[in-house]
Specification:
With 584 residues, the protein is an alpha/beta fold. The chain has three domains: 321 residues, Alpha-Beta Barrel (TIM Barrel), CATH 3.20.20.80; 55 residues, Oligo-1,6-glucosidase, domain 2, CATH 3.90.400; 69 residues, Sandwich (Immunoglobulin-like), CATH 2.60.40.1180. It is built from 15 helices and 20 strands. Helix 5 packs parallel to helix 6. Bound molecules: 1-deoxynojirimycin (NOJ). 1-deoxynojirimycin binds next to loops. Belongs to the glycosyl hydrolase 13 family.
């Protein structure tokens, strides 16, 4: 148990490791990661030094959206294991001093969810149908959708059912939005929160946290902003779909459930809202924390990074009692080693450039992996020295780049599925490829595509299933270059990304336990190209972190250099490098 994890407010300064279960570790050889696979890697995670794991959905699902289409919120997908496997995983994690966070998906269910099936069967006007957002269509026979909204994954946001009505789906058509004005929905999700809390879960990550409250009544649907789905960032709470004030009533209600437990359960919201509204979700009488995605959106640019840090610290101050979060990568964005290794264009065009690069299978721009890796090393140290919680996405500790050239016919993400005919988007699978654990388990180059392997999986799956037959290939193809990033290779290399993460996390735990107060973190002016800050260190000295983005080396202050992300000599900090110093 880390000292931090013995406190009830452990989550304020936590390092949370995101597990995307289907791609983390496969224990039974079916090519899909599973819960027993997570349990088998708890030692690895303990050695890494994380305080908690957050599991993306592992519930029964048809995988229309990587598990975010949940058929049963209070169960484990049989392909991923059983409730007993889950309980065992929680037990092993807790014994290792690691907390467990699960993902709650309350904006929509899967279309196969029993409540949606009941809504379909019960017909228009029924109480069952009121649990979702059904409307009559336009046109003489209701043959047109209620309005022209486009879903976030492409295609119409309304789907017609056999009796003629239409239901709203902001995401895939297999993900009908639920109606949070219906009391049954409140009861259903409170039951789910209690269910997982009773199974020892320490906290929750709330999917699409800013989307639950909707107002589809004040203005006729066909007179609403045709781009209301896409116009997510709203300053004045007037969007019919996003970031409405009433959403906070739901989280205050949930806080009462969280506080039924000792210690109270914790939650972090995925809320894509304007920075000045983040603190509303993070307030301690609501979720407690919210993701600050500015790092994940920033390119390797000193101004973008500085503004991400300042926005995070400011939002933490506004919550009075909570802390901010730092996120560089997750299962929805291209891996940051690749992002930082692509041409660095102004922030506004950066994501478009990455999308364009993916669309062309990683050929349209040169990806400088060496440079991207150097920057990623500097970035994680800059991030982990800051007050607040850091979320690490699986494989980031291995420095994995994005797999940009997955063949189109092997993709699973719905985004390319809807746009495939037009080939305008490649989707999010490139960061969801199963992890490489073991460099001795190397696939043979496949005939059909020289870059990818079959027949072995870098230790993602066992060689054989329990019945002795060969394991299935991983559900997404692994590139042959994965070998150099395998955990065993990095374990044996002192200079690897994995060992940098281990050392950084262990120093963070010993040097920075004193306080996580945002107010104690002070910016240091070391010139425009340098991001530098200081905080009190646990031994009463001042801790400082310096990152140099500029080409000219920077003179470091006097003190003990405890860690550097790259070579530092003669007190000079080179470009794209971070150092941690205990100041004299
Ligand atoms: C956010 C999740 O992170 C993403 O993966 C998912 O597609 C959407 N929410 C819809 O649930």
């Amino acid at each position: 148990m880390t000292a931090n994890n013995m406190r009830d407010d452990w989550w304020k300064q936590a390092v949370v490791y995101q597990v995307y279960p289907r791609s983390f570790k496969d224990a039974n050889g079916d090519g899909l990661g599973d819960i027993a696979g997570v349990t088998s890697k708890i030692d690895y995670l303990k050695q890494l030094g994380v305080d908690a794991i957050w599991l993306s959905p592992f519930y029964p699902s048809d995988l229309a959206d990587g598990g975010y289409d949940v058929i049963d919120y209070r169960n484990v997908d049989p392909r991923l294991g059983t409730m007993d496997d889950f309980d065992e995983m929680v037990k092993v994690a807790h014994e290792a001093g690691i907390k467990v966070i699960v993902d709650i998906v309350p904006n929509h269910t899967a279309d196969k969810h029993v409540l949606f099936q009941e809504a379909l069967a019960a017909g228009p006007g029924s109480p069952e149908r009121d649990r979702y957002i059904f409307r009559d269509g336009r046109g003489e026979h209701g043959e047109l959708p209620p309005n022209d909204w486009i879903s976030l994954f492409g295609g119409p946001a309304w789907q017609q059912v056999p009796d003629g009505q239409w239901y709203l789906h902001i995401f895939a058509k297999e993900q009908p939005d639920v109606n949070w004005k219906n009391p049954d929905i409140h009861e259903e999700f409170k039951k789910t929160l209690r269910f997982w809390s009773d199974h020892g879960t320490d906290g929750f990550r709330i999917d699409v946290a800013h989307g639950l409250a909707k107002d589809l009544e004040s203005v006729p649907l066909d007179q609403m902003d045709p781009l209301a789905v896409q116009h997510g960032l709203c300053h004045d709470f007037t969007s019919p779909l996003w970031d409405r004030k009433e959403v906070h009533d739901i989280y205050r209600e949930w806080r009462e459930v969280f506080n039924e437990y000792n210690p109270p359960r914790f939650a972090v919201g995925e809320a894509w809202v304007v920075p000045e509204h983040q603190h509303l979700y993070a307030s301690t009488d609501e979720l407690g924390q919210v993701f600050n995605f500015e790092f994940a959106e920033a390119n390797w640019d000193v101004d973008a990074m500085r503004s991400a840090i300042l926005a995070g610290l400011k939002s933490a101050e506004e919550t009075h009692g909570s802390t901010t979060t730092w996120v560089m990568s997750n299962h929805d964005v291209p891996r940051h080693v690749s992002r930082y290794g692509l041409p660095q264009v102004p922030a506004s065009s950066h994501h478009q450039l990455a999308k364009d690069w993916l669309l062309r299978d990683g050929t349209s721009y040169f990806e400088d992996r060496e440079l991207g890796t150097k920057r990623a090393r500097a970035a994680i140290m800059m991030e982990l020295g800051l007050p607040g919680s850091t979320y690490i996405y699986q494989g980031e500790e291995l420095g994995l780049p994005e797999v940009a050239d997955i063949p189109w016919d092997r993709l699973e993400d719905p985004t390319p599925f809807f746009t495939r005919e037009r080939f305008i988007e490649k989707g999010r699978d490139g960061c969801r490829v199963p992890l490489p654990w073991d460099s001795s388990d190397v696939p043979a180059p496949a005939e059909w595509n020289a870059g990818f392997g079959t027949g072995a999986s870098f230790g993602f799956s066992p060689a054989t299933k329990a019945d002795g037959t060969a394991s299935a290939d991983p559900h997404l193809p692994q590139p042959l270059w994965y070998k150099q990033y395998a955990a065993d290779v990095e374990d044996a290399d002192d200079a690897s990304m994995l060992n940098l993460y281990r050392t950084t996390l262990s120093l963070r735990a010993t040097l920075l336990t004193a306080t996580g107060d945002t107010a104690d973190c002070a910016a240091v002016d070391a010139g425009h190209d340098v991001i530098a800050y200081t905080r009190p260190s646990a031994d009463g000295r001042r801790f400082a972190s310096y990152t140099n983005f500029g080409s000219a080396p920077v003179e470091l202050p006097a003190g003990e250099i405890v860690l550097a992300s790259g070579d530092v000599a003669d007190g000079q900090l080179p470009q794209d490098t971070t150092v941690w110093i205990l100041l004299d």
